[in-house]
Amino acid sequence: MVEPSAPLLIGGGGSTxxxxxxxxxxxxxxARSARTCETAGERLRPIAAPLPGDPxxxxxxxxxxxxxxxxxxxxxxxLLGTSVRLALDAYGEVESRVQSWVQRALEPVASxxxxxxxxxxxxxxxxxxxxxxxxxVAWMLLPKASRESFSRSAEAGLERATGRLLDDQxxxxxxxxxxxATDDAALGALGxxxxxxxxxxxxxxxxxxxxxxxxxxxxxxxxxxxxxxVVVAPAARPVAATAPLGVADRVAxxxxxxxxxRVERFVDRVGQERFEVYIAGTAGEAADGxxxxxxxxxxxxxxxxxxxxxxxxxxxxxxxxxxxxEAGAGAHSEVVFTGYSQGAAVATLLAESGEFRTAGLVTVxxxxxxxxxxxxYPAVVxxxxxxxxxxxxxxxxxxxxxxxxxxxGDGWSDGDPLVAGxxxxxxxxxxxxxxxxEAPLLRGALDALPNGARDVQGEATAYTTRRLSPEEVGxxxxxxxxxxxxxxxxxxxxxx
Length: 496
Description:
- By secondary structure, the protein is of the alpha/beta class.
- 49% of the residues lie in helices and 14% in strands.
- It is built from 14 helices and 11 strands.
- It has helices at residues 21-44, 58-141, 144-166, 169-178, 182-189, 194-202, 208-221, 246-251, 302-309, 315-327, 342-353, 424-436, 440-448, 470-478, and strands at 9-12, 15-20, 230-234, 239-242, 261-267, 273-279, 334-340, 357-364, 379-384, 402-406, 457-467.
- Strands 1, 2, 3, 4, 5, 6, 7, 8, 9, 10 and 11 form an 11-stranded mixed beta sheet that branches.
- Strand 5 (261-267) and strand 6 form a beta hairpin.
- The longest helix is centred in the first third of the chain and has 84 residues, at 58-141.
- It is globular.
- It starts with 8 loop residues before the first strand and ends in an 18-residue tail after the last helix.
């Protein structure tokens, strides 16, 4: 059992309240104690009746008094539990209103500061450029060894400062709020009048999804290919797999971006099929190991991230859908979705799409705050409070998913990844804490997730994915063919 350094914070479930797991467990104990006292009082009542031949019924009177005290204790416990729940509801509502007020107050400030910054920057440019030129000349006059030593020191210092800045829960909170004001800042920098900005906000176009949609539209004009078609192919023959048990088991199976989708198929003793799909995060390199080119062959790139935040049919979303189809999953198939980072957004959108019979959803480290879960299925969303990637989706909207925020509290140190709170290995450890949690709200979702017996055998297939080039897409369009999920480089037909 994993010993948590700090209690998990649990929210969601259709509510705005976020509560520490220990408080939820205490509320459950209060409720169970109240029921126990009430039951004890009811059991004492029959034996408090007068005994035959005992006209004074001294024993019965004492039992009646004891029963009354126990029932009074039950009422006190029920009142305590009700009071705590009402206080939590009120706190959650106030926090939600304050957050909404801060967002609204931040929007005009962001547009004004961006407007002034753009104008001041242009005004200072004639002064700054000569200074930069002098600095560049001075740099080139330094001995090579001095330049290299200074560069190494500057890089190490910058990495240390950036790591400590990003590995801080205040940075994540601030970024979550700032994401809602990104569009206001951009429009303000362009000089859009405040009256038009006010109308823009009144129309509800200032969400993270709307902002990402605008960025996506501009990117498409500039040649961005975040929504370009993809092809998938099995990386190898299927291998035997046992059904996952719990959240940690699922998170442990999230694949590497080189083979970003893993699909498991299980058939129970009565012939009922169930699929489990695991979706990787954003890739750091191309499929051939070379540098990642946005909009290139790798569908799990930043271009797809923008399309996902805009809730469009991103290339990575298409890849996961095609892999499921290739594995045999259809509209009536029961599917559990598990995803990390970009894969978390893909998993959420597919689970909510209605294209499959969603049986569960588990996400870790995803920018899914603006993607609320509304379906009637168990869903667990896990985030670290010092993971800035989770803030890119904006503030968490009211959702039916159980949202678990884990305070890591480790702090950044030399040798850690730049965004240590986003590391998949850290989320694997947090998933073990989630499985061990006893908070009833979270426990209910965990118990509702399909957890097949270990002796139920299935098969797992890992899939490679590739975004089609403009020439391949053009060729398919010109012939009126529909792109399929087979990779033409594997020798299979690419069109049907």
